[in-house]
Amino acid sequence: MNRKIFIIFTIILFLNGCATMNQSECLNADWRVIGMEDGAEGYLPAYIGEHRTACATYDVAPDLDTYMEGHRIGVKQYCTAANGFSEGQRGDSYNGVCPGNLEAAFLPAYEHGYEHFLLNKELDDAESSMRYRNNDIDDLREEIVGLEAKIISNDTSEAQRANFLERVKQCHAEIGYLEAKIAEHYEDKVILKERLNQHNLHHQH
């Protein structure tokens, strides 16, 4: 295949992959249902512009009034306290789609859920750091074993032995530092778990 044709073909595939609707969906669109689905997903009304772009290729224009009618219904499904907490807990962003009367219930629940998400993320980060540092300690201890074997070897010169001994001291110092950091991460985990438990209890009430 000609390289230029291949590149054009690849771009077309990429653009089609990014389109919100394909040819069949555009030609058979129920704009009320599409509006409901978009509203229920928390998309702003302006998201219809993405559909307009996708369907323009097939000479299909969205029905704005019908779409907006469905969108208003979908937004009511999205803007509930229960969904707000779920959205926040997943770490999803909120773009202000809820009208004031619905946002009063949605937003506090979303913020509560997002706090839950952040606490879990901090906890995961602390656990990951502990794992990485423990792996580093294992590597250092393995290095020490190898160095000690060289130190007692008859093939090792006095100058080499001195260098190996110095490196062993450095390894032990690094292990001490890492163990101290692991202890800090463990304390962080205890605090974060307690905060998470309190957070869960507060949400249940």
Please give a structural write-up.
By secondary structure, the chain is mainly alpha-helical. The chain folds into two domains: 112 residues, no CATH class; 90 residues. Helices cover 80% and strands 0% of the residues. It has eight helices and no strands. The protein starts with a helix and ends with a helix.
Beta-strand content: under 5%
Order of helices and strands: HHHHHHHH
Q: Number of folding domains?
A: 2
Total number of helical segments?
8
Q: Shape, please? A: elongated
Secondary-structure class: mainly alpha
What are the segments in which pLDDT stays under 50 over at least 5 consecutive residues? 1-17
Helical fraction equals over 70%
How many runs of DSSP E, i.e. beta strands?
A: 0
Quick check: average pLDDT?
89
State the distance separating the first and last CA atoms.
65 Å
The largest pleated sheet is described as: none
- Gyration radius, rounded: 29 Å
